[in-house]
Amino acid sequence: MVIAIVGINNWFWDRGTSPTIISILDLFLWQFLYPVTLVHFFQKTSNEASGKIVNLKYLYVPFILLSACNIVISVSTIFSLYNLPQIVGNYIGHFYKTVSFLSVIFPIYTIILSYRFVLTHKDNPSKKWLKHLWVYLSIILLFGVGLELYRFIFSEKLPLTYLWTFSSIFIYWLVYKGMYQFKLSNDRYEIRTITKKEQSKSLSSNAKNSHFKNLLLLIEEEKIHHDPYLSREDVAQRLEISNGYLSQIIKENTSRSFSDLVNHHRIRDVKMMLKDPMFDNYSLLSIGLECGFNSKTSFYTNFKRETGLTPKEYKNK
């Protein structure tokens, strides 16, 4: 919303016109507000990951103070409601030169600050999109900073056509991704709800030892293989055996490796869902992700390796 307001203000600026509503909106220096909202977004995701709360209220100080000064000046120079003292009028040019300089420095500071929060997710593959988001936003902000730097050095304002074109494309992409990710997340939630209601299936009677039977219990009843970050170490710890012994009993009972066994059960669950009309309304990807694959590539590659078909081909068949 803030970026849209800034865009409208600058569009009228480029046209050389200023309706009353735009003059009112222009009283506030929005360029010191929208970088703060971006930092807060990355901070929120960081809080969810680390549990740490960082106070960022000080970031609002430039917006509040500079907007207050701009209102005092604009009410006199634009709306002519009163006359500023001569001594104040002498410093108006310096004030806006300072604003231009801070418009270069402040976004760069917020980019660096927000990157600290992005680093919180460096070991979490599911948050990789946050790094991409940070990169896209940083490129747009730095492009705007370049335009403002030119204005500061040469006292000439360049057209913002390209900046707002890039921003518009980015916002459309963000809305699309948001709707797509929401649909995907909602599908996975509903799939999880349905599968929790299903009865656990009977275990294989061919298991050669109790540890392997316990492993099958974890798979069948607790659906541990639906965790995309499941590791051999995690399972061995649950079974209270060594990593090597876990690999040994899996090999003896299935002739598979740990990862192959886990993916086999993931694919088994996917195939069951694809055959069940109850899951017809959900996308293939949402089913694959809910069954434990951590990406579309991993899902399609492993599924085709085991079945010889893509998920779509299997469902059609």
UniProtKB/TrEMBL annotation:
SMART domains attached here?
HTH_ARAC
Provide this UniProt record's keywords sorted from A to Z. Answer: DNA-binding, Membrane, Transcription, Transcription regulation, Transmembrane, Transmembrane helix
Pfam families recorded? HTH_18
- Alphabetized InterPro entries for the sequence: Homeodomain-like_sf (IPR009057), HTH_AraC (IPR018060), HTH_AraC-typ_CS (IPR018062)
The GO terms describing molecular function are:
DNA-binding transcription factor activity; sequence-specific DNA binding
Residues annotated as signal peptide: none
In this entry, which stretches build a coiled coil?
Answer: none
The record's annotation in SUPFAM superfamilies points to: Homeodomain-like
- Residue ranges annotated as transmembrane are 20-42, 63-82, 94-112, 133-153, 159-176
Q: Where is the HTH araC/xylS-type domain?
A: 213-317
PANTHER family listed in its UniProt record: ARAC-FAMILY TRANSCRIPTIONAL REGULATOR
- What is the protein named? AraC family transcriptional regulator
Q: Which organism is it from?
A: Flagellimonas nanhaiensis
